[in-house]
Design a protein that fits this description.
By secondary structure, the protein is of the alpha/beta class. The chain is 53% helix and 14% strand. The chain has 2 domains: 162 residues, Rossmann fold (3-Layer(aba) Sandwich); 118 residues, N-(1-d-carboxylethyl)-l-norvaline Dehydrogenase, domain 2, CATH 1.10.1040. Helix 9 crosses helix 11.
């Protein structure tokens, strides 16, 4: 057991904080920008709600966060009401936001000045993975600091691994998103081709998902893509935010990701059709409804 705080109770953070309490047995304090949601969580899980990140972080061994982007992260970490202002030397901040490697390194350095450990730990698995406590967590930071938090992270993870120094977790998440974007475009083209050819797509998916073309996306999204159902899952807006991070980092390191850049523009077209909150599998909508 540990005393922990969780900052950010969105579709990911709300259940993740819940698992820390119910599965991990930790003493959990929560903060959310909308206080009523933090109080709702506290009433549901038996934790404590606080009105600022600093108040939530005070007296905690580990402070977790899962917010929207780099600026959101800085706002809950830095400043007079930020988490770092309430944390003591020897404690650890774990960030599950999908953010840039630059902000991870920035906050790692700021934490070190106060004796606070910092682990960048973006997750994969989506809302369902968070709710079921089976997320994949990719971490960056110091080995001794990671060892202090790995057990707590296991409360909501099926896999958790230290990938390297500060920023390595975020860089690994970028690889993840680049791969998913390309996979979903290929899956969209394949499913659309099969429908245009008049095939029974349930049979097609059943057969090819057992071979080299198989993937999580095919097994979990293939049928809904063919049915034109997208009102669930990881939103297009979120994917575009992530791909923007990927493309920014690619400019820095010289990696060529031309297909990713093209798919990002396809997602822009989905947004133009009103699909901002559609699942990322909605790429097929551009092919099936041209």
């Amino acid at each position: 057991m540990a005393k922990v705080a969780f900052l950010g109770l969105g579709v990911m953070g709300y259940p993740m904080a819940g698992h820390l309490k119910t599965k991990g047995g930790h003493d959990v304090t929560v903060y959310n920008r909308t206080y009523a949601k933090a109080q709702k969580w506290a009433d549901e899980f038996g934790g404590v709600a606080k009105e600022t990140p600093r108040e939530a972080a005070e007296g905690q061994d580990i402070v977790f966060a899962c917010v929207g982007n780099d600026d959101d992260l800085r706002s809950v970490v830095l400043g007079v009401d930020g988490a770092f202002a309430g944390m003591q030397s020897g404690t650890v901040f774990v960030d599950h936001t999908t953010a840039s490697a630059d902000v991870a390194r920035e906050l790692y350095a700021a934490g070190n000045e106060q004796g606070i450990g910092f682990i960048d730990a973006p997750v994969s698995g989506g809302q369902a993975g968070a709710e079921n406590g089976v997320l994949t967590v990719m971490c960056g930071g110091d080995e001794d600091v990671y060892a202090l938090v790995e057990g707590a992270i296991d409360s909501f993870a099926k896999s958790c691994k230290l990938m390297g120094s500060s920023g390595a977790g975020q860089l690994t998440k970028m690889v993840n998103q680049i791969c998913i974007a390309g996979l979903l475009q290929g899956l969209s083209e394949g499913m659309n081709f099969g429908m245009k050819a008049g095939l029974d797509m349930e049979k097609v998916i059943e057969v090819i998902s057992k071979g080299a073309a198989g993937s999580w996306q095919m097994e979990n999204r293939g049928s809904t893509m063919c049915q034109g159902e997208f009102d669930f899952g990881f939103a297009v807006d979120w994917m575009r935010k992530d791909l923007d991070i990927c493309m920014g980092e690619a400019k820095n390191n010289g990696a060529r990701i031309p297909v990713t850049a093209m798919i990002d523009q396809f997602y822009a077209q989905v947004q133009a059709r009103g699909g901002n909150r559609w699942d990322t599998s909605s790429l097929i909508h551009l092919l099936a409804n041209d």
